[in-house]
Write a structure and sequence with these properties.
Helix content: 55-70%
Number of strands: 0
Strand content: under 5%
Low-confidence stretches: none
Radius of gyration: 34 Å
Mean pLDDT: 78
């Protein structure tokens, strides 16, 4: 049995490895360039599609356009609902404050208090938009009465 010496070319860090790395880098570069070209082509198509879509919708005229009075009425309705949501949120916070904290789990963390506050606010916004307790309706009717 004879033992042969290992040359530098057969080691992992030898000369063949360098040409392998160069070939791999070249292949990755070509793959990257192909991907980049494909993305640029898709972006150009998207821009062309957006331009043609905006040209088509530029001549769009709705069947029932909103008048200035309709826009003002919509803004007033949203303001009334916002007021009701704020009122309900304040009321809900005061109701929550009357509930004693149990000592079983300890004091609530700041994160939990912030989460509950955000959840309650969103809950009251949803309640106000879906009818609430009627404050928004009464305010809207009161504010839209025609003066004689």
């Amino acid at each position: 049995m004879m033992i042969q010496s290992i040359g530098a070319a057969s080691l992992p860090g030898g000369a063949p490895q360098t040409s392998y790395d160069a070939a791999r880098m070249d292949a990755e570069g070509k793959s990257f360039q192909a991907t980049l070209d494909e993305l640029q082509r898709k972006a150009a198509q998207t821009d062309t599609a957006k331009a043609s879509a905006s040209a088509e919708t530029a001549g769009y005229v709705p069947k029932h356009p909103m008048t200035d009075a309709d826009i003002e009425a919509k803004k007033l309705r949203e303001a009334c609902e916002g007021f009701e949501a704020m009122f309900l949120s304040m009321m809900y916070k005061q109701m929550r404050a009357t509930v004693p904290e149990s000592g079983l789990l300890g004091k609530k963390s700041n994160a939990l208090e912030i989460f509950e506050d955000m959840r309650d606010t969103e809950l009251m916004n949803t309640a106000a938009k879906s009818g609430g307790i009627g404050i928004a309706d009464m305010m809207y009717k009161q504010l839209t009465i025609k003066k004689r």
